[in-house]
Q: What sequence folds into this?
């Protein structure tokens, strides 16, 4: 049966997952939970600590225990740390992105609509304007949204939820060796992706995405691609803004 606190964790976890306690709502006190579950306060406190580590509840000192509002922060953080502790290089991360994005683009070309492509072009224009203005936070955001708009075109909410934790990895692997170079940012190469998607040709879309990533084969990028993911992430800092040097 496992430890008593594990059983309490599972009972409360199930109640939270099934929205018996709404996100953001306040849970009963530890004392009230202990009484209703028929366990000691120490068992309940252990269970609440476990639920907090799982990101399901928040203990606000002096205010009580609250059900966490679902966010992808914890998953993103865990994935990023896992990547940083590995010996994966930026080039290997890009290889994974190419395989994933080219396949998704092929399907998006088949099912996407004009509204999806209009939003995609909006992000592309904003991205290119930001790069030209050297507004890196906006450039990162709009570049990310451009690539994520391929997924949005599929109209698969579950897939969007699965992909959300990958956003930081996409940003980190998108920074060119020289962030001041418009050419290394791939200005102009994104248009061919949109055009292929708009054509409704899956193979053209797959090829356009792969061609877009050809920059990874350029002399300027080859050595950079061998850089460990954790080194680039550390260089960028928490705000993912390129630093000098």
A:
């Amino acid at each position: 049966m496992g430890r008593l606190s594990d059983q309490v964790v599972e009972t409360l976890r199930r109640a939270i997952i099934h929205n018996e306690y709404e996100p953001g709502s306040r849970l009963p006190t530890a004392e009230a939970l202990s009484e209703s579950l028929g366990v000691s306060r120490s068992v309940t406190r252990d269970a609440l600590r476990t639920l907090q580590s799982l990101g399901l509840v928040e203990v606000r000192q002096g205010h009580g225990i609250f059900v966490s509002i679902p966010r992808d922060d914890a998953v993103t953080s865990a994935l990023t740390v896992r990547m940083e502790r590995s010996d994966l290089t930026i080039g290997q991360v890009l290889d994974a992105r190419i395989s994933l994005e080219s396949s998704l683009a092929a399907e998006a070309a088949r099912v996407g609509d004009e509204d999806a492509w209009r939003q995609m072009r909006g992000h592309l224009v904003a991205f290119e304007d930001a790069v030209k203005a050297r507004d890196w936070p906006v450039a990162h955001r709009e570049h990310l949204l451009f690539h994520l708009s391929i997924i949005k075109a599929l109209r698969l909410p579950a897939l969007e939820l699965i992909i959300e934790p990958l956003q930081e990895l996409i940003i980190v692997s998108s920074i060119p060796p020289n962030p001041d170079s418009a050419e290394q940012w791939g200005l102009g190469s994104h248009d061919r992706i949109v055009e292929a998607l708009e054509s409704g040709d899956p193979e053209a879309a797959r090829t356009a995405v792969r061609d877009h990533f050809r920059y990874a084969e350029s002399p300027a990028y080859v050595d950079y691609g061998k850089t460990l993911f954790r080194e680039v992430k550390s260089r960028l800092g928490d705000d993912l803004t390129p630093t000098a040097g």
Notes: The longest strand covers residues 57-60.
